[in-house]
Design goal:
By secondary structure, the protein is α+β, with helices and mostly antiparallel strands. The protein has a single domain, classed as Alpha-Beta Plaits (2-Layer Sandwich). It has 2 helices and 6 strands; from the N terminus they run E-H-E-E-E-E-H-E. The strands form 2 sheets. The protein has a 4-stranded antiparallel sheet, covered by helices on one side. Helix 1 runs antiparallel to helix 2. The protein is elongated. It starts with a strand and ends in a 17-residue tail after the last strand. This is Nitrogen regulatory protein P-II family. Belongs to the P(II) protein family.
Length: 112
């Protein structure tokens, strides 16, 4: 099992969810986060005063999938979320040792 953790632009969430649903991925966890990277924030003006906002809103997706689908799912997310500009996000890939479905006690792949 593998965990894909993706940091995306909030505006790309629905497109990515739709693409994952078409591929057959239905179980995802979505968290609203803030952060910065190469984008380094932006400047805004409020009542004539300029402010630097260096933590920008992002969305974090967490998906646990079978190892054989990792490359396909990473490619789907990457292509769907890409705008070609700085701030498109990142995908982090982790190995998962085990999972347990609390309701039934199932473990491993059956728990996903």
């Amino acid at each position: 099992m593998t965990k894909l953790e993706c940091i995306l632009r909030p505006g790309k969430l629905e497109d990515v969810k739709d693409a994952l649903n078409r591929f057959g991925i239905h179980g995802i966890t979505v968290t609203q986060v803030i952060g910065c990277g190469l984008q380094k924030g932006r400047k805004e003006v409020y009542r004539g005063t300029e402010y630097s906002i260096n933590l920008l809103p992002k969305v974090k997706l967490e998906i646990i999938i079978d190892d054989k689908y990792v490359d396909d799912v990473a490619k789907i997310i990457s292509e769907t979320a890409r705008s070609g500009e700085i701030g498109d996000g990142k995908i982090f890939i982790y190995k998962i040792d085990n999972a347990v479905r609390i309701r039934t006690g199932e473990t491993g792949e059956a728990a996903i």
